[in-house]
């Protein structure tokens, strides 16, 4: 006879599920960005996404009667600055580097997250989680290997590589600040500060380089707003339940979702590299799941 699941274990399971949901939502966001095809500047996409997020989050806060400004305003603003900078770097890297290179560099962020979590938050990361992180990273490299081979003889611009690495580092720091804030701040407040900071940052770029979207591009822009908002809400919830190092290894599953969308929507070929790489990523996620009983509940 099996013993009943404790409330702590339920919280851990919920954290795992919502992080998977977050990765799914963010993968749909990337589909919308890819459909736009780079015609609209990155700053404009960030701006529209932030407007949507600000409006929806504020409505949710009013309904939940949550104080708008939170307690730790300084760290909330820092979280907004880091998140905005990370978004700019990631989008710019995708624009200026081959997709293979940009993907590999961006998905080094779980390693940075685990290291920062140990150094800044004092989180103890067990050996199995480091193994999960490395397995996931190897899996991503296997998935993009054919593209690396085809571009092996071309030198990548060093500035673009630095921008991509900066995006990975900033993404990791954003995870850490969310984890830190989750101890004392309402999740909606954390999400709210992201667009609150990013809107004034992006507005000057619009004055000079704004592009009027077409009808179908407005649909994709709305999709970016909806899926990013959903992903932010879910990841914020997940980081309040699961330590950042564990959470970051779970998010490798987004690569599997991206592979599925590539085959179904963009008719990208499914080959042995993708299958083997996906197996590595799924193994990393299962290893993380097997360790959920070992970390402390916050």
Description:
By secondary structure, the chain is mainly alpha-helical. It is 79% helix and 0% strand. The chain has helices at residues 7-36, 42-64, 73-96, 99-106, 109-121, 127-150, 158-181, 187-209, 215-241, 244-250, 253-264, 272-290. The longest helix is centred in the first third of the chain and has 30 residues, at 7-36. The relative contact order is 0.21.
User: What overall form do the CA principal axes indicate?
Assistant: globular
Strand content: under 5%
Q: State the order of secondary-structure elements, H for helix, E for strand.
A: HHHHHHHHHHHH
Largest sheet: none
Output the radius of gyration: 19 Å
Question: What's the rounded overall pLDDT mean?
Answer: 80
Query: Which structural class is indicated by helix and strand composition?
Result: mainly alpha
So how many helices?
12
Can you give the helix content as a percent range?
over 70%
Which stretches of 5+ consecutive residues score pLDDT under 50?
none
What's the count of strands? 0
Q: Termini separation (Å)? A: 29 Å
Features of the shown structure:
298 residues; mainly alpha
In short:
The chain is an all-alpha fold and about 300 residues long. Helix content is about 80%, strand content about 0%. It has a domain at about 10-125 and about 155-245.
């Amino acid at each position: 006879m099996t013993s009943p699941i404790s409330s702590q274990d339920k919280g851990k399971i919920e954290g795992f599920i919502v992080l998977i949901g977050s990765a799914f939502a963010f993968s749909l966001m990337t589909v919308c960005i890819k459909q736009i095809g780079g015609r609209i500047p990155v700053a404009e996409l960030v701006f529209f996404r932030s407007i949507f997020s600000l409006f929806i989050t504020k409505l949710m806060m009013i309904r939940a009667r949550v104080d708008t400004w939170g307690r730790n305003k300084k760290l909330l603003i820092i979280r907004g600055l880091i998140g905005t900078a990370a978004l700019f770097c990631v989008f710019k890297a995708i624009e200026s580097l081959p997709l293979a290179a940009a993907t590999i560099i961006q998905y080094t962020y779980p390693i940075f997250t685990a290291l920062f979590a140990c150094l800044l938050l004092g989180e103890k990361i067990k050996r199995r989680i480091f193994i999960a992180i490395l397995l996931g990273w190897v899996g991503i490299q296997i998935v993009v290997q054919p593209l690396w081979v085809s571009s092996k003889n071309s030198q990548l611009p060093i500035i673009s590589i630095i921008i991509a690495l900066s995006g990975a580092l900033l993404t990791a720091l954003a995870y850490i600040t969310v984890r830190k804030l989750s101890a004392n701040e309402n999740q909606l407040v954390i999400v709210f500060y992201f667009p609150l900071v990013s809107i004034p940052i992006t507005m000057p770029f619009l004055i000079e380089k704004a592009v009027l979207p077409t009808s179908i591009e407005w649909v994709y822009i709305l999709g970016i707003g909806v899926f990013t908002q959903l992903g932010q809400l879910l990841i914020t919830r997940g980081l309040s339940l699961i330590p950042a190092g564990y959470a970051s290894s779970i998010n490798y599953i987004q690569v599997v979702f991206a592979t599925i969308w590539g085959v179904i929507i963009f008719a990208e070929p499914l080959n042995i590299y993708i299958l083997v790489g996906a197996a590595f990523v799924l193994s990393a996620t299962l290893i993380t799941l097997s360790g959920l009983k070992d970390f402390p509940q916050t």
